[in-house]
Amino acid sequence: MNRNLKKLELKLTNVAKASLEELLLDYEDFLRQKRLRKWDKDDPEALVVRRRYKSYPQCWFENRDDSDELLDPYDIERADPSTAANTILCLINQAIYLLKRLVDSQAAAFVDEGGFTERLYNTRKARRGKPWNL
Q: Does the reported pTM lie above 0.90?
């Protein structure tokens, strides 16, 4: 992938992370305005949400199309407002954590690999002072 695409990929991943961080604040505001308890990351309810993905049946992720019903494995649609908001907060936090790891990985690749032009420059620079092998 060329350097400009890597740079764009890194930028767009950061935009996605920032958008989720804004959404996180909106849900926290909702809980505060409604005077509902916000779960701590180590509360039993939060731990259940954080571990829940491991129990998803594999068939949920295979052969899905637009005609399938939407998945609601956390039963958010029927949950009370406090449970629904806190569950979504847990999921947003998980997504932000994963995006942070992706950004770190993309940044490292960007620094390590560079782009085509940069690699050509480094090759030319390394060959300077060496006799040409034709």
A: no
